[in-house]
Amino acid sequence: MNQHSIKKIVIVGGGTAGWMTAAALAKKFLPINMDIVLVESEAIGTVGVGESTIPHIRGFNEYLGIDESFFIAETKATFKLGIAFKHWGQLGNDYIHPFGPLGHDINGVEFHHYWLRMQQEGSKYPLDNYSMAAMAARAGKFQHPSTDSMSLLSNYNYAFHFDAALYAKYLRRYAEAINVKRIEGIVAATNLNSDNGFIESIRLDSGITLGGDLFIDCTGFKGILIDKVLNAKFEDWSHWLRCDKAIAVPCALSEEKLTPYTQATAQQAGWQWRIPLQHRTGNGHVYASDYLSDDEAAAILLKNLDGEPLAEPKFFTFKAGQRKQNWEKNCVAIGLSGGFLEPLESTSIYLIQVGIQKLLDFFPDKNFAKANSAEFNRQLDEEYVRIRDFIIMHYKENAREDSPFWMDCKNMSVPDALAQRQKLFKSTGYVDHQQYGVYAAVCIGQGLIPDVYDFKINAFSHHKIAAYLEKIHGNINAAVASMPFAQDYINRILANTNQGKPL
Amino acid sequence: MNIPVKKILIVGGGLIGWWAAVFLKKSVPNIHISILNSQVEDTYAETLEPNFANYLQLIGLTEQHIIKYTDGNFAFAQAYFGWLRTGNNYFHSADGLSFDYDAVEFNQWILKLRKNDPSIKIDDYSVSAVAARLGKSPLRLNKKPIAALSFDLGLLKKLLMSYALDLAIDVINKELLAVELDSAGDIDFIVASDASILTSDFYIDASGYTGDLIAKAMGVAYESWSAYLPFHKKKISVVPQQDSRLIPFTSLQLTQQGWLKSIPLKNKIVCEYIYDDALLGAENGKNAIADFFVNGQDVNFYPGQRQKIWHKNCLAMGAAAITADGFSHSPLYLAAVTLKQFMAYWPSHQQFDAVENEFNRLMRTEYESIRDLHCLHYAVINMQAFSTNTFWREIKLPESLQYRLDLFMETGRALPDESTLLHPSQWIHLALGLGCWPRKYDYIASHHSDDIYVQYSQSIKASIQASIENLPDYTDYLKSYIS
Ligand SMILES: Cc1cc2nc3c(=O)[nH]c(=O)nc-3n(C[C@H](O)[C@H](O)[C@H](O)COP(=O)(O)OP(=O)(O)OC[C@H]3O[C@@H](n4cnc5c(N)ncnc54)[C@H](O)[C@@H]3O)c2cc1C
Q1: Which domains does chain B possess?
Q2: What one-character-per-residue DSSP string does A293-349 give?
Q3: Nearest CB to A1: which of B2, B409, B446?
Q4: What is the reported pTM?
C-alpha cells in the first residue's frame, strides 16, 4: 500500500448485487486490511426476484470458496440445465437453449451443418435430440457432469435456480465474517467535491456521514449515487426490448417431479417464467404495457400456475437500457443501478459478476485514471450489448401472426451488428463464437434455418451422416437413462448435507 | 444449393502468388488452380514470425527446408539499436517473460522493482534474448523456444515453384493485359498478353501494390496510413556475410532520418534503409549510411490497406491488400494468415455479401492491430522525447493506439486484443523494452515486498545464466543442424 492506494470502500445497497460485491471484494482484499462498509435499508428492501442463473455463478461461488452442497441447502437451490422456450418463434414451437454443446463437430464443421443437411434431405428430428443437456432436462434427470472428458456424461454444464433473498442473506454472513461492516440506514444525501465532482461522503437518515475513497452503487433501479455523479445519462433500448413490466408470484410446487430447467413460455405480449426451487416455484410474467393491461397480464399469469399462489402478485416497472457509464469518477454501479435487461436468458446476476470481476481487473487507485475507467466501461458495455442483441434476437426471429406484439417485433429494425450476424447465419450457417450462448441452437429454435449447410460435408454420404446422427442420439438416450431424476439427486444431496454447518 | 467454387486463378507471379497457389492446392486438392506468372516486384528477404512453422507444415515444408534451401537463418530476437534514450539496446524475443509471481504478472512486479532500480532491463529475463546477444543457440534447451526464420525471397519462391510442378498447378507464363467485368461487377474474364482469354470462378489478386484486379479493374480504394506510417522509400543493399560467425538476430537501427533494418541470412546480409526523402536529401553528402547504399536498389512502398480485400469474386493478397513498414509480421506471414482465414469462408457460386463482410471485418481487425504495433515504434521515440528531428513529432497516432497507450501508461494494464496474431504480452514487452514505463503498477503488485521480487528476479536471472552456459555456439549449432 502507498499513499495513493484505496483504503476505504463504501457499498450502498444490500441486494444480490451489494452482497455479491461485498463478499468478492472482502475476499480479494483480505490480505491487505481494506476497510469495506455496506449500507442497506430494510425499510426500502430489495427487488426480491432474480432466481435463475447461468453456469458462471458456480465460478463465483468457487472463488469465494463456498461448498456447493451447503449452498444448495442454504438457498433452497435446484439444478438448471438450460432454458426451455415454448411458443417462441412460432406458436407450438418448443426448444431448449442448453448449457452444453450440440452433438460433436466433425472435420472442423459444426454439428448443426450435419443436422441441417439431414433436414434438407427429409429428416424431421429436432436439434434438441443431439444435446445432452436438453435431453436430460426434458427427462427431468440430473447428476454432476462426469470428469471423464471422453464420456457423454461430461458433455454438459449446469447452473442453479435459487432463492435470491436467501442467497443475499448467506453472502451477508460470509462477508460479515471477513470484516465487512454493515450499517443499517437510508442514504439521504450524497456529497460531491465541488471541484472535481467526486463523491466525498454520504449522509444517512440517522445523521451519520460516511466518507470513502471508492463508492459502489448497488441501490437497484434507483441508482442514487451514480445518478448524482453522472446526471442520469441512460441509454434507452426499449425500442428493441418492448417489455416494460413484470408481475411475479410464487406458487406451491407441482405434483410432478422437479424439472431441471427454466421454462420461458411466450404469451401474447411477452412471456412467462417458471423457476422451480426446493420449496416453491417462482413465476412471473414479463410484458409490454403498450399491448397488454396489468389486469390481463395478471390473469394470464395466474391462469398458468402449477399450484396455489403463495403470495400476492408483485408488480415491477422497468426500462431496458444501460447507464452510459457504469463507472464515473469514484463511483461504480453494479447490478440494476447499472442497467437492466429482461431476465429472458437469466443474465442479470451474471452481469453483476462481470461488473465485479472487471472492477477487480481494473481496480483503481486514488488518482482514478480516466483511461482505466474508460476501459472498464468499454468492456462492460461490450458484454451488455452482446447479451442485449442476443435477447433482441429472440423477439426479432419470429413468424407469429397471432398478436400485434409479435408482428411488430418481427418488423422492427435491429442493431446493425445483429442484423449482419443474422444474415450471415441465414445465408451460411456460420456462427460467430464471440457471441453469447449456444447461438445456433437458439437461431434454429426460433426458426432461423440457414439456407445452406457447409459444402465440406458433401464428402459424406447421406447414409453415413444419418447413421452418425442416430448414433449420437442413441448414445445420449442411453446416457440420460442412466442418470437419476433431478429430484432424487437433490434429495440425496440434502440428506447428506449438514445444515447450519459453520462457514 | 451451395456450390463451392472449384476453379481459382491467381494473378501475379511473386512469392505471394506462388505461396497462394501451393497452399490452396495442397489444402484442397480437388480444386483447379492456375497462376498467371506475371512479373511482380518482390524484395529480397523477410523474417517470418516464430509460429510460421505451422503454416509451412500445411504445405509440407519444415524449418529445416527453409534453413537449407533458402539461405535461411534463425532469429531468436529482434535487436533495437538507438531506440532508447538511455542509449541501451533492446533484444525483443518471442519467448519468456512469463514469470508471474503468485498471480502478479511479470510486467507488474518488474514495474514495481524498477521504481527503485531504473537500470532494470526486461530482456535480461528472456533466454532467447540473452542467447541471441551472446551468439548462442537456445534451440538446444529442453524447453525449446520458438524462433523466427529469415529467408531469401527468391530462393523460397524457387522452392515453391518446384513444388508446384508436382501439384498439377496450371502455370501460365504470360503478363496481364486486361480485366473484364460482367454487369454485376464480378470479374468475367481476364485477357493475357497473347490475347488469350482466361476465365475462373474466383480470382486472387497478387499483382502487388497496383492491385491490377481489385483496384484497377474493380475500383476498390486503398486506405493510406501515411499519417501514421509516413515513410514510403527504402534502399536495399545485399552484402555478403563475411564474418565466419553467423548472426542469430535481426536488427533495427534508428537514425536521424529513418531506420535501418538488417536481416542476416547464412551467406549474406540484406539491409534495408527506410528513410525520409527530404531529411536524407538535406544531409546526403556527409551521410555514411547513404554512402553505404549508393549502389542499393530504390524501392517505393505505400503503407495502408485495401478497403475491402475480398470484393465479389476477387481476393487481394500481398501488397494489393496491405503494406506496413516491416517491423514485424512480414508480408508472407500476413498473406498466409489471410489465406488460411479465407479457407474458412470459402466462396460459393451463390455470392453472399454477409460472408464477404464478415471476412473483411475480421481481416481489418487483424491488419489494424498490426498497424498499431508498427505505430508503437514511432510513438516511443516521441514519448521519450529524445530525437531532435521535428519530423518524428509530426507522426500521428491512430486513435486505437492512443487509447491503448493511455491505459498502459496510466495503469500498466494491457488491452485485450481482438487480433489473433498478437498476444497482449507481446505488445507490453515491446513497449517496456522500448522504454515506455507506465506511471504506476497494479495494486496486486503491492501484495509483496520488493525484497521478495528482488529475490525472485535474481533467481530467474541465475537460472537463465545457468542454462545459457551450456548452450552451443550458434554457428556451430547451425552447421550441425544442416547436416
Ligand atoms: C422481474 C424481474 C425478474 C428477474 N429475474 C432474474 C433472473 O431470473 N435471473 C437473474 O440473474 N436476474 C434476474 N433479475 C434481475 C435481478 O433481480 C437483479 O439483477 C438482482 O436482484 C440484483 O439487484 P440489485 O441488488 O441490483 O438491486 P436490489 O435488489 O433492488 O437492491 C437494492 C438495494 O439497495 C438498497 N437501497 C436502495 N436505495 C437506498 C438508499 N437510499 N439508502 C440505502 N439503501 C438503499 C435497498 O435497500 C437494497 O438493499 C430479474 C429482475 C426483475 C425485475
Answers
A1: 7-48+150-225+304-352 (3.50.50.60)
A2: -HHHHHHHHHHT-SS-B-S--EEEE---EEES-SEETTEEE-STTTEE--GGG--HH
A3: B446
A4: 0.92
